[in-house]
Amino acid sequence: MRGILLAGGTGSRLWPITRGVSKQLVPIFDKPMVYYPLCTLVMAGIREILVITAPEDREQFVRLLGDGSQFGLRLEYAVQEHPGGVAQSFLIGERFIDGGPVALVLGDNIFYGPGLGRQLAMRHRPTGARIFAYPVADPHEYGVVEFDETGRVLSIEEKPARPRSRYVVPGLYFYDSRVVDIAQELKPSDRGELEITAVNEAYRRAGELSVTVLARGTAWLDTGNVESMMQAAEFVRVMEARQGLKIGCLEETVWRAGLIDDDGLRRLAEPLLRSGYGQYLLRLLDGLPGPV
């Protein structure tokens, strides 16, 4: 399975911060935002990733991440000329997907929790489509999913006035090879965008949309506005200070996944020693325990 990380858009809800820099390059505590969704894809067992950016931001992502070889990954880049909706990712990435299954993660979504990697890796080869469900106190502002005890999706609605459940759909999706054909058949919504909910609804009507409830204790953070971005940064700061372990550390994630060896981790750490981030990476080589 290949992965798409959508890091396009204008970031208008974060202006003026994002007038000069992509939202997904803004720091969430001690790392650029894009590190977190990249780690999510890596934990799901995905090694080939297409990063979709706004045209003016592409070179900044390339400067940060390169071709991914230093992380044991293969990264490619494409541009979203204008914000055309999340489902537009599949049209932009059609050549990259190359007729296979694909995972899509939104570049401003952060996932963290015990056993999250195992849970994702078990689900990353779907028949049909698989989405995830996360309980929230106020589901009105999200895509809401209703499902039965077997995980069969009964309904999925975008920002409903009367939600049928308190479970919402975070920005992580797994699809089989038909997703490109489905995206090609979509009509723009009233917002003029190709909606990801419409893709999921097409799979639901075919009886091929499944849902997995994220385990209790999993944190899902959507950093779409200033307040939620600051809450996410504080969450990461507090958890790292308590545990002495980093969240969303791309270098550690690929090393623990076996994509780079000890020498590779050391090479990544050495240019970062002055910030303290590199010192953390070197401590990993001394046996600092990590998440399981």
Automatic annotation (TrEMBL):
InterPro entries: G1P_thy_trans_s, NTP_transferase_dom, Nucleotide-diphossugar_trans
Catalytic activity of the protein: dTTP + alpha-D-glucose 1-phosphate + H(+) = dTDP-alpha-D-glucose + diphosphate
Keyword RNA-binding: no
Coiled coil: none
EC number of this enzyme: 2.7.7.24
SUPFAM superfamilies in the cross-refs: Nucleotide-diphospho-sugar transferases
Needed co-factor(s): Mg(2+)
Example GO molecular function: metal ion binding
Matching Pfam families: NTP_transferase
Domain (Nucleotidyl transferase): residue spans on this chain: 3-236
One GO term of the biological process aspect: hexose metabolic process
Lineage: superkingdom: Bacteria
Keyword hit for Magnesium: yes
Record keywords, A-Z: Magnesium, Metal-binding, Nucleotidyltransferase, Transferase
N-terminal signal peptide: none
Membrane-spanning ranges: none
Function according to Swiss-Prot or TrEMBL: Catalyzes the formation of dTDP-glucose, from dTTP and glucose 1-phosphate, as well as its pyrophosphorolysis.
PANTHER family linked: GLUCOSE-1-PHOSPHATE THYMIDYLYLTRANSFERASE, GLUCOSE-1-PHOSPHATE THYMIDYLYLTRANSFERASE 1
Family: Belongs to the glucose-1-phosphate thymidylyltransferase family.
Name of the protein in question: Glucose-1-phosphate thymidylyltransferase
Organism of this sequence: Micromonospora robiginosa
Designated gene of the protein: rfbA
